[in-house]
UniProtKB/TrEMBL annotation:
<feature type="transmembrane region" description="Helical">
    <location>
        <begin position="59"/>
        <end position="78"/>
    </location>
</feature>
<keyword id="KW-0812">Transmembrane</keyword>
<feature type="region of interest" description="Disordered">
    <location>
        <begin position="210"/>
        <end position="233"/>
    </location>
</feature>
<dbReference type="InterPro" id="IPR025445">
    <property type="entry name" value="DUF4191"/>
</dbReference>
<feature type="transmembrane region" description="Helical">
    <location>
        <begin position="33"/>
        <end position="53"/>
    </location>
</feature>
<dbReference type="Pfam" id="PF13829">
    <property type="entry name" value="DUF4191"/>
</dbReference>
<keyword id="KW-0472">Membrane</keyword>
<protein>
    <submittedName>
        <fullName>DUF4191 domain-containing protein</fullName>
    </submittedName>
</protein>
<feature type="compositionally biased region" description="Low complexity">
    <location>
        <begin position="219"/>
        <end position="233"/>
    </location>
</feature>
<keyword id="KW-1133">Transmembrane helix</keyword>
Length: 233
């Protein structure tokens, strides 16, 4: 029992530390976050308490007001923290890959499956909606990069829908903050075994890093072997 209590206490302390860290990070981009959260909590509690006095049950509605005020504050805090995080990531290389890592269960993501010399990059996600290709960089160059990736996949994966998006704020593009929502709204057309089969075929095709040729001769000083690279037999 003592060990369980210690583990629970450590977990709670970790959560509180994470919340505090998230608040500090959010406050850097949203200086009014403290005032907003206080206003949401007080207004929610005040409304419920006022209703309680009107109907003659201030204690019950007061307790309910505290609970709802905490819930409303948590929801607002989560949304503003997410908005602040997207604001800090937007325009940074690999921002879309970071969003894909948190898109949710049921999705398998592979960053940088294609890239050109200008560092325009294509990421891939596979789920019950099919295959999703996400491009980051110059829209004009990405069109060719996405088309080439689709053509390469078409040789291996058949009858699987392929969606492609370019991250950005221009016409026909998907803003970074809406990328996750846009993917989750896609119709689910594949069953679990089909998703697994699609992933296996794409892995057999390889990605940019696994297909990157290694230089012949001795390895340059200071260069490390990439993870997942060929093993000695």
């Amino acid at each position: 029992m003592a060990r369980k209590d210690d583990a629970a206490s450590a977990a709670n302390a970790g959560r509180l530390k994470q919340i505090a860290l998230t608040y500090k990070m959010t406050r850097r981009a949203d200086s009014k976050i403290g005032l907003v959260l206080a206003a949401v909590g007080l207004v929610t509690f005040g409304v419920l308490l006022g209703i309680g006095f009107l109907i003659g049950h201030p204690v019950y509605l007061g307790i309910l007001g505290v609970l709802l005020a905490f819930l409303a504050t948590a929801i607002v805090f989560g949304r503003r923290a997410e908005r602040a995080a997207f604001g800090q990531m937007e325009g940074q290389p690999g921002a879309a890959a970071a969003v894909l890592d948190n898109v949710g269960r049921g999705w398998t993501t592979t960053p940088a499956v294609a890239m050109n010399r200008s560092q325009d990059v294509v990421h891939r996600a596979v789920g019950k909606a099919g295959i999703v290709l996400i491009g980051e960089g110059n829209p004009n160059r990405l069109k060719g990069l996405l088309a080439a990736e689709k053509k390469k996949m078409s040789r291996i994966v058949v009858d699987v829908p392929v969606h492609d998006f370019i991250v950005g704020d221009g016409e026909g593009q998907v803003p970074l903050k809406k990328l996750r929502t846009t993917m989750l709204k896609l119709p689910r057309v594949l069953a679990g075994p089909q998703v697994t089969q699609t992933n296996d075929r794409l892995k057999a095709m390889g990605d940019l890093m696994s297909n990157m040729p290694l230089p012949k001769g001795p390895m340059p000083k200071g260069m490390r072997m990439p993870k997942g690279g060929p093993k000695m037999r």
